[in-house]
Design goal:
The complex is a heterodimer of chains A (about 300) and B (about 425).
Chain A lengths: L4 H42 L1 E3 L5 E3 L3 H7 L2 H32 L6 H7 L2 H4 L2 H11 L6 H6 L10 H29 L3 H9 L4 H12 L1 H16 L3 H6 L15 H11 L3 H27 L6
Antiparallel strand pairs in A: 1-2
Helix pairs in contact in A: 1-14, 3-8, 3-11, 3-13, 11-14, 13-14
Chain B lengths: L1 H22 L11 E8 L5 H10 L3 E8 L2 H15 L6 E5 H7 L23 H6 L10 E3 L5 E6 H6 L6 H7 L3 H14 L4 E3 L2 H12 L21 H15 L11 H8 L3 E7 L2 H9 L7 E4 L11 E4 L7 H12 L1 H11 L6 H5 L1 H4 L11 H9 L11 H16 L5 H16 L1
Helix pairs in contact in B: 9-10, 9-18, 10-18, 18-19
The chains are: A mainly alpha (about 300), B alpha/beta (about 425).
Chain lengths: ~300, ~425
Amino acid sequence: MKQNRPLARAVTWFDLKAAPYVLISPYFLLFAVFGLFPLGFTVWVSLHDWELAGDRAWLGFTNYTELLVDADFWNAVVNTLGMFVLATIPQLLLALVLANALNKRMRFRLLYRLGVLVPMVTSIVAVAVVFGQLFARDHGAFNWLLGTDGLDWQADKLTSWTAISVMVDWRWTGYNALIYLAAMQAIPRDLYEAAAIDGASPRRQFWRITVPMLRPAIIFTALTSTIGGLSLFTEPVMFAQGDVGGGSLGQFQTVAMYMYESAFRDRDYGYASAVAWMLFLLILLVSLVSFLFTRRIGGTK
Amino acid sequence: MKLSRKTAALAAVLAGVLAAGSACGADDDGGSGRITLVVDTFGSFGYEELFTQYEKDNPGVKIEHRNEKEHEKVYVPKLLQYLEAGSGAGDVVALEEGILTSLRGQADRFVDLADHGGAALESDFIKWKWDLGKSVDGSSLMALGTDVGSLALCYRTDLFAKAGLPTDRAEVGRLWPTWADYVATGERFQAKVSGTRFVDGPAALFNAILSQEAPKHGNYTYFDTSENYVADKNPAVKTAFDLVNSLKAKNLSSGLKSFTPEWQTGFKKDSFATMACPAWMLGVIKENSGDAYADKWDVAAVPGGGGNWGGSYLAVPKQSKHPEEAAELAKFLTGPQSQIAAFKAVNALPTSPQALADPQVAQAVNGYFNDAPVGEIFAAGASSLQPVRLGVKNVEVRTVFEDVLIAIGQGKLTPAEGWTKAVEDGRDKAE
């Protein structure tokens, strides 16, 4: 027995101290390989003149200093922020209203609840084809509806941003609505009953009970929408039929598209990596702002 | 016991992770013994029947064809990404001459086809086409030519009749000995027809005119023979730019971007009546227009007299797991007989002297285009074509000019602003 003591102690130590770390290590290993390493490697690449399928040479911070005076980059930043505002605010408000409606008693409730998820599971190719035709210059459905025949939605910033925001909202409103709906169902019924007895109208109940109680969900959706909105790529690329240039003059080129263009059209990996880091900083900044903003929802704590 | 259960659980988790990791990367289809060769192409190469034939003759090979319609902005970025990543590219990849030019300095990324019996094929190719397929230092045979882009002009006979213009291809050709005459014809057309524009869009025409003008000014475009950026100084570029904008100013252009869905839809909506037609464009027109438009298109001589636009190559990336088999396939697809077959399928004009002389090419008529004698129109001048010298960054600069022309069409820039922007943005890309 005595001989086994050190072993037993080691086993106990391992069991208590090391085992938990070993058990959670797969996640951290994967994170290190697929999260941390690319992040660090991007920094390394961004300090080089790193040509895709070509030569590479040390540059230092030249990529960053060039980027700060690059009009195309700032154009992409403006476009990204513009589309973010144009898409996200209506999207979250609409999702809130939608979730409130779905939370009511009605016939075929499950059907409606599932229905809001349909845009998310639609094939991206189908979305591109359909919206491409809706917003087409010649024989397009929206031009026909609005009586704006021959309007080229891709020609102006505002029209292209609007078209892309419609696509974004079409795809993501349902997702956010479902998160709000789940949070709404966690709100105790007696709060509403008490408010009703006190004579609060449904509208008042919505703004004074539902919205404040949803605050954690709203903060969550605001953050995910910020990250998604600022790294917007798929919808504008589909709108331009696969072109990452974002219109003839970059009317709707987002930062993510500019990054892709730098890497794969101009074959400048170093510059693209610098863009990636600037995008990362931009997302941090805007996330902070939207967190501070949404935290104030519902007034006092 | 406690410990071993944990160990077992941990082992299970790790095993799961490893299994998930190794599940990717399977390549060949199981134990059937057949290998799969992936062929990447863009636009229309007309290889479908050749693939079927090759699979029949080589039971050990299965061919998977991946095609992108759009070249510069969809096909090329993907291809470059695959080359950089070291995996993902097809075993045989199609390279348009512009992109081949920019890759000729990186021969180490491609299999030297001379190692696979390619060197013996020299007589199967027009001299300059063969030479351009070699790496810059001439040490490696990187690619084999598929076709050359002899120029013509395609037009809609039914719409020309509506406008009171002649419809016979010889008479139509006489309407426009020069591009100025072409613009004048456009004005006559547009005066009578309103729903349709005379020409599809700026880009194709610009490239066609540029390829004609280049030989008059040192036979280069945006870059001179020492790779200096000369877009602002080369009169060829300005001439092509101004001609295309004069069409826009006179409201003769539909302003569509080639190979976009709107452009493709335009074929069926009568959006345009003429377009610049390198030989390979005939296949594209037929594919997009469909049977309902058979005999409504015809082929006439191009204003300005001949020209060489486009033409492609096949290469085998080094990353291919089956370089030997891929090289065999590339040799097969670029052989004279295959070039004849591709010509029959989509009118990709052969780059092999034997194929060009073959009656199946030289005397070919295209049933879809009113039995136009496409062999005579395209093949006749093919052997005398000269390659326009392209710079390494040709594709990037060309894209800039095409985008600016579209923006001018959208009314976002005046032609003068557009010229300044194109020259400056092009310079940025060139550096």
